[in-house]
Amino acid sequence: MSLHAHRRRWFTLCALTASAALVTIPPSASAAGHGGGSPFGPRTLAQLAKERVHTVGAASSKAPLAQAEDDDGGNEADEIAEGADQYAEARTSPGVVAPGAYGAAWNSLQNLRGTGGHWRNVTDLPYNSDDPRYRDFDSNSSGGSGYVTGRMAAMAADDDGYVYAGSAGGGVWRSRTGGGHWTPISDRLPSQSTGALAVDGGGRLWLGTGEASTNSDAYLGSGVYVLAHPHHGTFSARRRVGGDELESTTIHELRFGGGRVWAATSKGVWSHSTKRLGGHWKLEFAPNPDFLPGGSKAGDPDAPYKNIANDIAIDPKDPSKVVLAVGWRSGDDYNGFYTKSGGTWKRITGGLGDLPADADNVGNVTFARSADGSRYYAIDESPEQLNTNPDSGLEGIFVSQSGSPTGPWTKIADYKGLAADNSALTEPGYMPGVQAWYNQFLAVDPDNAEHVYAGLEEVYETKDGGGTWSTVGPYWNFGFSCWSIDPAKQTGDCNPTTHSDQHGVAIGRYHGKSYVYVGNDGGAYKRPVDGSQDAQGHATDWTSLNDGTIDTLQYYSVGIGKDLDHGGVSVTGGLQDNGQSLLRSNDKIMGSNFGGDGGDTLTDPANGCDIAQEYVYLAVQVTQNCAVNDGSWTTDPSKATSYSVAPPDNATSEARFIAPLAADMKNSDTWIAGGRHIWAQTHGYAIRSGAEWKGLYDLGEGRTATAVAASGGKVYAAWCGPCNNQGFARGIAVGNADGTGWHDISLPADGTVPNRYLSGFAIDPRNADHVFLTVNGFSRAWTEGPGAGVGHVFESTDGGTTWKDVSANLPDVPADSAVVTANGGLAVATDLGVVYRAPGRTHWQRVGNLPAVAVLQLKTSPDGRTLYAATHGRGIYTFKVRDLD
Hints:
The protein is mainly beta.
């Protein structure tokens, strides 16, 4: 087997951030996402591609994916959708979140009395995905992406060297030096989710909040904001454009023409004057207005799909001529291009040339026009292909050589042609545009109308209007003849590339030289617009801009253990699409010891190099040397330093995408894992095989664990099933790690514990029968659905038999996890930050001042003196426990 065959996939879920309200657009891939078998070891693009061939079309575009059956073995495009769906379930089921929920929660949180102390970011330093120390078989090191951070959803730049990067979960950042040396500029906003960034003709920076990748683990935004002097200022809620019309939407693009700004949103197309920023936004077009808020069908389960707008093309010669690209990525009757005729928006039914006009072949669309008005370009994703073609969902890249958005359009690229241009994605079943519903950007060189950059999974460039293309930013360098695992070379003889999965692009100048800036799932990168290429057409001059001053890392988890080699502690954490980061006490640069998506993390408090990292669906990898490896395993497999130890529910696809994993608080050698079954193993970090797990309890067919915790052999497990709106149910089971005493708790029908997703347990270290439960979602006040209940934190003093709501003045916001501190206080992680209840108190306080970012996990240091918070968008933070009281 070739070395390429051992590479783990970069998995790319859409990010989240705390903002006005949760997206209610469920993802719809062409297939469901449960993986059969372990995704570790010989995990290949070829294998993924083969499996995708068998799974395309396995689930309908709007079916609850958690109920779909498949054996895709871990196909990325499908797992993106499944993971996003499950993330949304936790916050929405069993209903739909009403607009304004997050805004109200943010205001409530700001009104809480604060604790003393302050947060300290510990991951605000470079993170090297190619760290030569960690080249074990389960690492993506040497792939060529270099320094990375969290996903960038949008980019903007000017000709004065200023660059603006809009992250999916960590707000907007500014560089004054052509990229790098970043400063956050949107921390005062109630939304840190970026949908669009644009610099207008007057130099103002426009921000559309709410990431519009149509994934359910993104959050809706709070509208559009303008920064009049972006070289110096920061965004303020007072500079919101218009009223609340665009609150609780996602914004895909902002376009300018005729003295107006146009917004393509999840609730149709809107426009507003660019001169007078007050007053209402005007709804220009919504294909199904009855499904908008306040409409007669607003409560329909399909309402979130019914008015999705992707982009706006404005004729540069006549700004009154506008073409709208409208449609749900997986297909709907209203999908298509629209233009105004006789004062009414009408579908364009023909005359576009090669660009399709039928609903089946118009999906996610991105436009770009040349500065001189002579060319318009477009990328079109086809819903029909998404649902039937295992190779790609890309309909094509097109040009209108008249410069008019009405065409005629000529196709200048398709997925087969792009694959042949030295792409890294050449396997049938996984080719360019396989995620065109998720990855898209287009930009035209202002000085050359035929020089175009296109982003899908990779970055492509044409200098002759589409006659020829080069893959200037390949997916990775694995598989190319120039690649080598040699630690003395970051990526062999290959040149650095970008991270995969492209979302944002901008062209600007610095010191008189033009650069293209791209944003993707690994952060921001740049190269000269007229850069150089090698013989294969790969760029030789990409520079990562993720220099450590920008921390938008999206953590699911955090682990802390003593650094026996250097003193202090080692900090590790599982990341969305950026593997597992490892920061040892003497490091100036973080390394990546596992690739792919990092889920939950276990770290031995006594030895920070004893690490277990969860991948997806309960796939678990363990190492006892931090996975240090120089790549020698490629010639001698016995020299591998990490081991696949997945519980059996991984092989049967009966675990959630991010599944619960925990160590017993009193015995770190006892681990508990949850899928359909509750599993235990007692060999600690010396485990070497999945066969060492022992089944403790069967939760039942269709049920999966959402949280597990154990102390002194007593185990708590929460579950859901079904986990979506179609018959949502949840419960709690308790028992012992030796397999005895297991039973389901009978939760009272009076709603004492809400009928919502049960997200975490915190056990009192002094008494295993004293336990706290966190509940996700919103109360009935904000959830339109059956039996949502109230409350977010509950307490039991009898081992889970009875529960008491102790939420008190806690803001009505999804709660994600909790931890009992050494002094007996309780800290709770929420989608908007951290709250704390002091020992003997009943009311909650806000812990420090974090931006509006979700905190998914809290843990304490081995000595109990420091609280660690894993945020999904702004890295890992610490807080001194002594400052909480």
